[in-house]
Design goal:
Blueprint lengths: L2 E5 L3 H12 L3 E5 L11 E4 L1 H9 L3 H7 L1 E2 L2 E6 L4 E7 L2 H7 L4 E4 H14 L3 E4 L4 E6 L7 E5 L4 E4 L1 E4 L6 H6 L6 E13 L11 E7 L2 E8 L4 E9 L9 E2 L2 H6 L6 H8 L5 E7 L7 E2 L2 E3 L14 H15 L7 H31 L3 H12 L3 H12 L13
Parallel strand pairs: 1-2, 1-12, 2-8, 5-14, 12-20
Antiparallel strand pairs: 3-7, 4-7, 5-6, 9-10, 10-11, 13-16, 13-18, 14-15, 15-16, 17-18, 19-20
The structure holds flavin-adenine dinucleotide.
Length: about 400
């Protein structure tokens, strides 16, 4: 039995803790905040995330809280014209073996947290910001996490799951602050009773306009509507959760069609974030230290895959560490080799989706509409198969040391 340290108790850190403890190692999760919580805003989960959640033993709990939507719908937000729809029922589920669903972030987080709390090999420590690590190198000795108060904790491996501004990454990769995308996202969650009946669709709907798009879907068992409106406004500074007046948000979205405007006008208590990501990098490990989730591959949310990829990372790293501590350096390298290419591609595709699909104006928008409306459901399934169709092996069939 080895001692594994995990910096960061977000979705990625807790998922990794559960998977690794399940392989018989002791895990200590070092979380910067005093408690272990996640906010209630919505996220989309592809079938690849459900597959990973099943392998982590919490798939059933997340399924019980999810809203199963019928299709992903793409609308021209300036004309209210429906451009394309990807059905997510029958053939989609049969092909990818799992549903596509929307959840509140806490609907994923709480089952992972409950699993960690119930596991005798997991210790959860709040108020434990990791500042740095000291790596003893490639020998049989361990790695030390240095906490903000000066405390030092030694283990056999350290996983940096400490998010987009990861302290572990700062030391391991040294690529500075994340890239500010120049896109501001305004988010609002409203009670469904405020939404007119004829606009209550069981879909993830995306409305695209010149240098903007917005997405909405039901969450919380259909009790709320999640609205996320993004503006390509060349913002230069990162912003996190800044309350924003409704009039400001509406002014940021010009040329809205009638239905698109009615939907956006439903938003209340808007908060703004300026989105950041990073370029993919080729190095995620340093001896007995590895990165995971947003610390390794932060991406724009346009492919709705950041958390899904963190869950996949967790399964792969748990399988990789199903071995004695002596082998950890090679096994962490194997984990990162298995994950780097796929996550890099997802990071780049997410950026491209914003530029090529969601934000073009004029002729570019007409070309996009023509291209998307010509696709059959089967064509669309083929396009997402590399992302949604991933089926990891899990511990029963993973290659052992
Ligand atoms: C607007 C928006 C919409 C999104 N929509 C989707 C979606 O639809 N589908 C999807 O799959 N993904 C989506 N994502 C992405 C998803 O939220 C992230 O990819 C995911 O939360 C990453 O999880 P993580 O655990 O790696 O990082 P985080 O969730 O950032 O967790 C990191 C944890 O580490 C802690 N921490 C930070 N620094 C330290 C430190 N030095 N020491 C100790 N602890 C530390 C933090 O407090 C936090 O608890 C979206 C993201 C955004 C911004």
């Amino acid at each position: 039995m080895a001692d594994i340290l995990i910096a960061g108790g977000g979705i990625g850190g807790l998922a990794a803790a559960l998977g690794i403890a399940d392989r018989g190692h002791r895990v200590t999760v070092l979380e910067r905040r005093d408690g272990f919580t996640e906010l209630g805003a919505g996220i989309q989960l592809g079938p690849n995330a459900f597959h990973a959640l099943d392998l982590l033993g919490v798939g059933a709990q997340v399924r019980a809280r999810a809203v199963y939507i019928d299709e992903l719908r793409f609308m021209d937000g300036t004309t209210d014209e429906r451009i394309a729809s990807m059905p997510l029922t029958g053939d989609y589920r049969a092909r990818f073996g799992n549903p596509y669903a929307v959840v509140q972030r806490s609907d994923v987080y709480e089952p992972l947290l409950a699993g960690c709390r119930a596991h005798p090999l997991v210790e959860l420590r709040g108020n434990s910001p990791v500042l740095a690590y000291e790596n003893a190198g490639h020998g049989p000795v361990g790695v030390t996490a240095v906490l903000a108060g000066g405390e030092r904790i030694t283990g056999d491996a350290l996983i940096g799951a400490d998010g987009i501004r990861s302290a572990v990454r700062r030391q391991l990769v040294g690529d500075g602050d994340p890239r500010v995308s120049g896109h501001t996202i305004y988010r609002s969650v409203i009670p469904m009773e405020l939404v007119p009946e004829e606009l209550r669709w069981n879909t993830v709907t995306l409305w695209a306009g010149p240098k903007w798009h917005f997405v909405h879907y039901p969450i919380g068992g259909g009790a709320h509507l999640n609205l996320a409106a993004t503006r390509d406004d060349a913002a230069r500074e990162a912003v996190v959760g800044e309350p924003t007046p409704r009039e400001h948000v509406l002014n940021e979205f010009p040329e809205l069609g009638d239905i698109a405007r009615r939907l956006l006008e439903l938003g209340r208590d808007w908060k703004a974030w300026v989105l950041c990501d990073r370029d993919p990098v080729g190095v995620w490990t340093d001896g007995r230290v590895a990165l995971l989730g947003d610390a390794a591959h932060p991406m724009l949310q346009y492919a709705a895959q950041g958390a899904c990829q963190a869950l996949e990372d967790a399964v792969v790293i748990a399988d990789a560490l199903d071995c004695p501590a002596d082998d950890f350096v090679q096994r962490l390298e194997k984990y990162s080799a298995e994950r780097r290419e796929r996550t890099a591609e997802t990071q780049l595709v997410a950026r491209e989706m914003g530029r090529r699909l969601f934000h073009p104006a004029g002729e570019g928008a007409r070309e996009r509409n023509a291209m998307l409306s010509a696709l059959s459901a089967e064509d669309m399934y083929d396009k997402v198969a590399w992302l949604h169709g991933e089926r990891l092996r899990g511990k029963e069939s993973a290659e052992k040391c």
